[in-house]
Each structure stands twice: as C-alpha cells, then as structure tokens.
Prior knowledge:
Layout (H helix, E strand, L loop, with lengths): L2 H32 L1 H7 L3 H37 L2 H7 L4 H42 L9 E8 L2 E9 L4 E10 L5 E13 L2 E11 L11 E8 L5 H10 L6 H14 L2 H16 L3 H13 L7 H28 L5 H22 L2
Helix pairs in contact: 1-3, 1-5, 3-5, 3-9, 3-10, 5-6, 5-9, 7-8, 8-11, 9-11, 10-11
Amino acid sequence: MRILDKYIIKNLGSGYLFILLVFVGLYFIIDIFSNLSDMLESKPPLGMIFQYYLYSLPLIILRVSPFSLLISTLYTFGELNKNNEIISIRSAGLSILRIAAPVIFFAFFISIITFFIQEKILIYSQKEVEDIKLRFIKKDGLAEAEERNLAFASGNMIFFVEKFIPKAQTMEHVIIFIEDKNRNIAQKIICKNITYEYGFWIGREVITYNLDKEGNIIDTPLNIGVKRIGLKEKPEELIFKKSIFSQFYSLSNLQEEISRLKKVKAKNLLANLTIDYYQKIAEPFSHFFLVIGVLPLALEIKKRKVSLASLGVGLGFGFVYYTFSSFSIALGKSGVILPFFSAWLAPFFFLAVGVSGIILIK
C-alpha cells in the first residue's frame, strides 16, 4: 500500500468513526426523549436501560453508518482539494480513479462488516431489545392496535392471519399450511379464530384438509369445533415476529420462507418477500454505491468551509438515494416492476452516475 493510500484511508477512517459516534450519540438522545415518559412510568432498572441501548447499537450502526461514510468521503476529498493536494497528486501522474481507489476499497470493506452485523448479530440483538422493551419499558405492548394481513412461519407451519388483535390475544380468519418431513404441504387448516388461553393457542370453528404433493385435497374435509394449535410463540412474541418477518430475518431464513410461499402459491407475499430478500443484500452495500455515486461531487468540493459543505451535500445526497430506493421498492411491491429490479434500481443508478462522473472529470 502506498503512502498516499494510507494517508487517505487514515483521514477517511478517522472522519468516519468520529461522525459515526456523533450520529449514534444523537440517536441515543432522541430515543431516550421519545421513551422518557414510558421509562418514568415503568421505572426500569438502570441495568436494563443500559442493556436496552447496548443491544440497540447494531441496528443504530446499520442505519447511520452509510451517512457517516458519505459525509466523511466528502470531507476527506474536500480537505484535499482545499489544500490543492488533488492537483499535486494528479501532477505526479495519478488518475482520478487511482486517487479514489482507497476510498472505494474502504467503502467495500465497511459494507462487508455491516453485512456481517446484519446477518449474524442483528437478529439476536433485536430480540433482546424487544424483550426488554416489553418487560421493562413498554409493559402495555399488548395494547397495540390490531394488525391486518399478518403472515409468518413457526416450525413446520405457515400462518396467514387476516386480523391479529394483541390486546385480545386473538387471531381471526386464519389459514395454516402444515409441512411434512419432506417439506411438502401435507395439510391445510382454516380457523375462524385462534385465541391464546392458559398458555395455549385454541382454534375454533376449525376445518382441516389433507393435501397431496400438488396441493390438491385428497380426503373429505374434517370439521372440528375446537382444536389446539401447536404454535409455540406467545402473543407478545407475535408482536415482535410481525416486525421481523422480513426486516430482521437472515437471508437463509428468507430463502426458506420464499420456498414455502412458492408451495402455497401466495403470489403477493412471495413478491414482497423476494423484494425484501434482495433489499437485505443491497442495503449493507449502500456504503459502496453511495461512495461511488458521490465521488464526482467529492472531487469537486473546493469551498473553504469544507465541513459544512460536506454535511449538507452528504445529507442531501443520502436523502435522494434513499428516497429513490423507497420509490423503486414501492413500484416493485405494487407489481409495476420486477421484484429483483426494484431492489437494485437505486444502487445501479447511482453506480452508473458515479462511474460516468469519474470518467468525465478532467
């Protein structure tokens, strides 16, 4: 590694860590004030509050890290330009791409790290966060508003719930698909409602259907007045499950759920989950795509107040990126564009813009 590469990475890395710490601190302050009334009412132990924010750290880092790297990149090149170092470096015969290479490498490296955090740490940490929140901070979690069109998996069962009422601990109009040992759909169960009673889920007005490998009914449907449903999760765990079904599942879990949905031919849910799958791949690498996209701007910043310019341009550029990404995701979930394309439209667009800008810089 050349001295120039070390110099750029050192400035970029130190700026990134500083801005990351600032954003994490701001996030903590905002979250504390937003939960202050609940904390004063429930009076959780200080140890639980510390654990709550410790376990919240992975999610916070994933949310603010792209902006931290984006602003740090703008600031690093802004300082180089302000001191005419870019001109000196180019006079030595180095191209724009060669100057930007350590920044691109660093962005890719951070993307790999955040991908690891997302896949190996986030699910565990968020379960702990939700558990502490329900037990010590928001004890009235079951008083949440009803949830409609809930879909989730538990063991060898796939649930499609028309309405989930946490306060009543009841699911209404439920369809359950049960898999056999070979992961084929062997049974379909329809319940008018399922209620959590004395530690068990009890279904009422239950109809069961036996299915062949193609999903066709093979026997006479069996009407059962009351049936115990082998769902292990408690109502408060379903509140968490509804929020993590795609957002906090690992890629392997999502692949498993996608294969299950293909079997039951749930096209809309399948399309949405496919988008979530590719979005989970793209999000950690937003560091890489954002840095590539902003490089032409970063190399042109020559203002004296580099810090303010970097902050403004960084936040603005990041806002445009995530707005574009949200718009393309919405188009995908509404069926206007293909699921795969909707998740990668914004990253590829900003990658193309960045590469074109670098080529056009003289």
